[in-house]
Design brief:
This protein has 143 residues and is an alpha+beta fold. The protein is built from four helices and seven strands, in the order E-E-E-H-H-E-E-H-H-E-E.
Length: 143
């Protein structure tokens, strides 16, 4: 879920900006969009309630801020530590999909272990409430 902003043109040649609330179900792909006069927190809650009524209540909600954090962090790890290139990043509440290219000299153990360790460590720091109770051992998440 995230906010976007659009300009609305009126009949008397003026325009004004409105906030567009958007939520996408990562399991079925159904989309919900609603427009508000601003992106204040109360409109976020109203938009979420309306979206949940329309597409159902998921077990987890992945906000764009969390997804963006993981994407930026993965890009930095890929480019700086592994000297590679992040091609595509996507994710859901319980896992991520990462497509990258690396030089032939990259060690397979570094390719797998380094991003997993770094992302896991940062996730625990930034989103402890999302992970609490889901770990049965280091690095293994359960639903």
């Amino acid at each position: 879920m995230d906010w976007g902003f659009v300009n609305v043109d009126t009949d008397n040649n003026t325009s004004y900006k409105v906030a567009c609330f958007a939520m996408i179900c990562h399991h079925c792909g159904e989309r919900y969009i609603e427009f508000f006069p601003n992106a204040k927190q109360e409109n976020l809650f109203i938009g979420m309630i309306h979206a949940f009524k329309r597409i159902g209540v998921p077990d987890h909600v992945l906000t764009d801020n969390m997804k963006n954090f993981f994407e930026v962090h993965t890009k930095n790890l890929t480019e700086e530590r592994l000297r590679g290139n992040l091609i595509e990043f996507n994710g859901e509440a319980e896992h991520v999909h990462i497509l990258f290219e690396l030089p032939l000299s990259a060690a397979p153990s570094m390719v797998i272990c380094s991003p997993k360790t770094q992302l896991s460590r940062e996730a625990r720091k930034r989103y402890p409430e999302m992970i609490r109770g889901k770990l049965i051992m280091e690095g293994l998440f359960l639903e």
